[in-house]
Amino acid sequence: MKLEGKVAIVTGAASGLGFASACGLAAAGASIVALDLDEARMARLREQIEPSRLLLCAGSVAEEAHVAAAVDAAVARFGALHIAVNCAGVADAAKTVSKGEPFPLATWNKVIAINLTGTFNVIRLAAAKMLGNDPGDDGERGVIVNTASGAAWQGQVGQAAYSASKAGVIGLTLPVARDLAPHGVRVVSIAPGLFDTAMVAGMPEQVSKSIIERMVLFPARMGRAEEFAALVRTIVENAYFNATTISLDAGARMSAR
Ligand SMILES: CCCCCCCCCCCCC[C@H](O)CC(=O)SCCNC(=O)CCNC(=O)[C@H](O)C(C)(C)COP(=O)(O)OP(=O)(O)OC[C@H]1O[C@@H](n2cnc3c(N)ncnc32)[C@H](O)[C@@H]1OP(=O)(O)O
Ligand SMILES: NC(=O)c1ccc[n+]([C@@H]2O[C@H](COP(=O)([O-])OP(=O)(O)OC[C@H]3O[C@@H](n4cnc5c(N)ncnc54)[C@H](O)[C@@H]3O)[C@@H](O)[C@H]2O)c1
User: Which member of 92, 111, 146, 220 lies 3.0 to 4.6 Å from 189 by CB, making a disulfide possible if both were Cys?
Assistant: First the structure.
């Protein structure tokens, strides 16, 4: 799908990979509907994207009403919705048992609700709008890009909920793509390795350092948000990407511990 004149909703657009993805799609000519809980940081998009092509929607991907309002606003303001990029996510961590205390179920529920249920909430509501689009080349009506994680395969200490949520994103990619193929909507997920964003800033220093030293093949550094955004743009523009999860991790591979 060519990006010029298209409309994209980007969740988690206030920070990190979502912020870079919103800016990258806008630079290629798309109008952006940004959805994030963090209104203050999301407002920084106004410095990067002209007002006529930007709509900021405060809300949670885990809330049906918030996402429904955002996709309705997208169509009301820009006439259609063609692209959805799911970047919203949290990485709250806890050990399965820590000092005798079991993993807090509230933490599990929060991480699954945002990372997995929230991703699917956006997929289902955005796809419903895409089905109303006129078919383009190949009969294409829309593209959905989700964010999983290398943690789906290589979760760290404390990441039971996070890794499960990301494995769920990978798991839903193919069946959702099967559901939507007859309507001309593609579904692709990205599994990033370690990227230099606010989410990772909260990681214990020796964790990120040990991941880079133990697992990242080359280049031995964290990924940059712009590198993630470049892959998002490529997926949208290349119609032959569908129903798959693409690792973007500098060849990171599992280590024994
Ligand atoms: C086909 C194959 C593909 C393979 C692909 C591989 C890709 C590469 C990996 C993917 C990376 C993806 C990144 C991800 O999507 C984004 C994020 O996950 S960002 C946030 C990540 N956060 C974490 O991973 C940390 C989660 N854990 C914690 O925060 C803590 O462990 C805890 C659960 C809150 C508990 O902490 P504590 O109460 O302090 O107790 P601990 O016993 O855990 O800590 C003691 C000590 O050990 C250090 N430590 C903790 N976890 C690790 C670890 N995983 N590795 C090394 N060291 C660890 C901790 O910092 C403490 O150190 P101290 O301060 O005591 O010296
Ligand atoms: N940074 C990494 O190393 C890495 C690696 C693999 C996958 N990921 C995934 O990439 C995505 C983006 O992460 P990031 O590194 O840019 O983190 P980040 O913390 O910089 O950005 C995450 C954004 O999501 C928003 N958000 C959180 N909960 C929300 C909700 N309920 N509704 C709407 N917005 C919400 C936050 O406000 C924030 O702006 C996440 O899904 C994360 O799990 C990150």
Answer: 146
Instruction: Tell whether ligand 1 has an atom less than 6 A from the beta carbon of residue 197.
Output: no
CA of 12 to the centre of ligand 2 (A): 6
Residues with a catalytic annotation lie at 162
Stated length of the chain: 257
How many CB atoms neighbour CB 183 within 10 A?
17
CA distance 171 to 73: 30
- pLDDT single digits (tens) 31-59: 999 999 999 999 999 999 999 999 999 99
152 lines ligand 1 (CB under 6 A): no
134-156: b or e for each residue (b if 16 or more CB lie within 10 Å)? eeeeeebbbbbbbbbbbbbbbbb
How far is residue 124's CA from residue 112's CA, in Å, rounded to a whole number? 17
Q: Look at domain 7-247 and name its CATH class.
A: alpha beta
- Would you say 231 and 248 are in contact if contact means Cβ atoms under 8 Å apart? yes
Q: Are β-strands 142-147 and 185-192 bridged in parallel, bridged antiparallel, or unpaired? A: parallel
Vertex 135: Cα angle to 32 and 239 (nearest 5): 70
The 10s digit of each residue's pLDDT in 172-224 is 999 999 999 999 999 999 999 999 999 999 777 887 788 888 889 999 999 99
Domain ranges of the chain: 7-247
Q: Is the pLDDT of residue 256 over 70?
A: no
CA-to-CA distance for 131 and 204, rounded, in angstroms? Answer: 44
